[in-house]
Amino acid sequence: MLIKFKQRYFLPDKNEQILTRNDSTVVNSITTEDNLISSPNYDYDISIVIVNYNVRDFLNKCLNSINASQTNLKIQTIVVDNHSTDGSINYLRNIYQKAEFYELNENLGFSKANNVGFTKAKGKYVLILNPDTILSTDTLQVMYEYMEKNQEVWISGCKILNPDGSFQLPCRRGFPTPWVAFSKLFGLQTIFPKSKLFARYNQTFRSVDETYYIDALMGAFMFARTDKLKQIKGFDEDYFMYGEDLDLCYRTVQSGGKVAYVHSTSIVHFKGESTKRSSINDIKHFYEAMQIFVKKHYGNSSFFLILLKIGIFLRTQLAYLFKYKKDFPLIVVDILFVNLALLLSTNIRFEKYLGFPDYAYPIVFIMISIVHFLSLFSVGEYFEGEHSIRKFLFGNLFTFFFLTALTYFFRDFAFSRGVLLMTIGLTFILGSSWRMTISTYKNERNRNYKKRIAFVSESDKFEEIGNLFDSNQLGENIDFVGAFNFNADNIHYEDNTENIPIIGNYDFLLRNLSDLKLDEILIYKLDRNLEKFSDLFSKTLDSGSKVYFISNLGEYLSSFIISKVTSSPTILINHKLILPRYKFIKRIIDISSALLMLSLGLPHTLIKNRKDKKYLKKTLYVLNGKYSLIGIYPSENIRNYNAKPGLMNLAEFSPSTERSNETIQKLNDYYELNYSISLDFDIFIKNLLKRGN
Length: 693
What we know:
Elements: E1 17-21, E2 26-28, E3 44-52, H1 56-67, E4 75-81, H2 88-92, E5 100-103, H3 110-119, E6 123-129, E7 133-135, H4 139-149, E8 153-161, E9 172-173, H5 178-185, H6 188-191, E10 212-213, E11 216-217, E12 221-225, H7 226-231, H8 244-254, E13 258-269, H9 273-276, H10 282-297, H11 302-323, H12 328-350, H13 363-378, H14 389-409, H15 417-445, E14 451-457, H16 462-470, E15 478-485, E16 502-505, H17 506-511, H18 513-516, E17 520-524, H19 534-543, E18 546-550, H20 553-566, H21 580-600, H22 602-606, H23 614-624, E19 628-631, E20 646-649, H24 661-673, H25 677-692
Parallel strand pairs: 3-4, 3-6, 4-5, 8-13, 14-15, 14-17, 15-16, 17-18, 19-20
Antiparallel strand pairs: 1-2, 1-5, 6-12, 7-13, 8-12, 9-11, 10-13
Helix pairs in contact: 5-11, 10-11, 12-13, 12-15, 13-14, 14-15, 21-23
């Protein structure tokens, strides 16, 4: 049964059943707060609390390193599973029979899950440990002895290393005061890593080979006194993921305790493994956690909050750009080519490279670069997987027609359409040659490369899939990774069939797509409802994997050929809202429409009663991106969509008495799967006519 929390932090309701343990029985929570506070008698020296989420192999290594510790201390190991879907607990509970395993019925987040573990801790000390860590053989003994000798220290942490042996900076930190947060978010710490003024967050001006008091530690390894941990009531559950370790250390210091960094022992931390297996946007949660911390502990500084939000916005945008980093070299090359082509064309026409009047420079270079980029972006040449000469051709044609049209409005720049035509022609020749060269190089490099292929299907189809590979019908250059069970809630690794490895369920595929490095995902004999697979389509844009719906070998081969010719996974063509260009176009339309409505006073003509007064507020929401002018019907009872809630939507055309959740979901599904600019236009016009009537 799922644990429910009545109080903040980790005190559960009295006598409430909370979760299942490794013996499949239901256990009762501790019934009084007195039982949670320290007792002079402990059953163990150290209670290790590990929160697991879909990291079976890492957890296995972590538990093995605990067993390998060279110590005579009495150790209690508690594993709280955050509703994993990779079969972690079923696999490991038989290997580590002395460990205590608790399974939650949903992902409660890092803070709540740890607090569940704290209620079960019977040791003098609690070690908060990530599953993607490996302890040194002396770590437990060294940390125990340090805490015994330094009674003023409530929480301590050791040296944390990356797998390559380098030091992980976040394992000892300063509190994010206004100045510290500013230095971190705006890059001053990176520029001046040895400065006590700018590098206070990651403390890079201090030696990693000394032991000293510190403001805060990393949540991957925190060695705490059990009585003190429970005195400050564990982790603050307002933090879902990230920030809870900073907050815990801050409350420790405020309560009179010390936090220490101990250099004399170390662990290895596979940083990010325990969070990247989640579908949660971890960047978003990291910065939200920082905002929670600042509001909680520095809430009186409104200027700091504004500055923090600006910094968070800039860092988030940089993270988004980094997501598409593979496209930027090609963008730079294309811009260089179009400007080089302009110089060559000008020289051919006017016999000098800068043949236009002086006032034309550098405007002509800037404009042709911007228009060329936007044209190629609008046809899907950038940020949508493979590049193609076909898209490049259409992008160049758009550039030519758009710039030609501009010269009718800006006559001072109508120098020569011949120069423009030559520029576009040379750009196409240069860009196409570059693309063919890159393509030839990749083909030569990957001549002996075996495509990594995985199937998504139901369990009764796995035997058919296995036969395809046994008979070698898919060719020799295939690396068959395995299959994912679409309908399974939880995959147990012992369920594998004789001729096909079952890797996990569909949710596990989504969470681990980047690690699997799949070239192709074949959805085999499943209903071709794109809505069911929208999350997969979104993620494959980043990973580069191609998705095919198939029911037989011939269909796979035909889909492969179509995809090869069009340089685009065929299944994505009608699912436009996951593509960056359509998101961009829709956002531009939203901003333009909202500004027009506000400037013309249209909302005032629509506000006739109290109910319509919300319309103006929602128009402002369109400007800040919370709403779209046209989108889906907002409802808490349906899943998240790529489309945003809309001021206008299909569901509004149905009578409110007949607007059931099922009807709303079907209409929202239709909009998401069939989005187009023309559909938005139809909804807009008919909505205005409806309001007029």
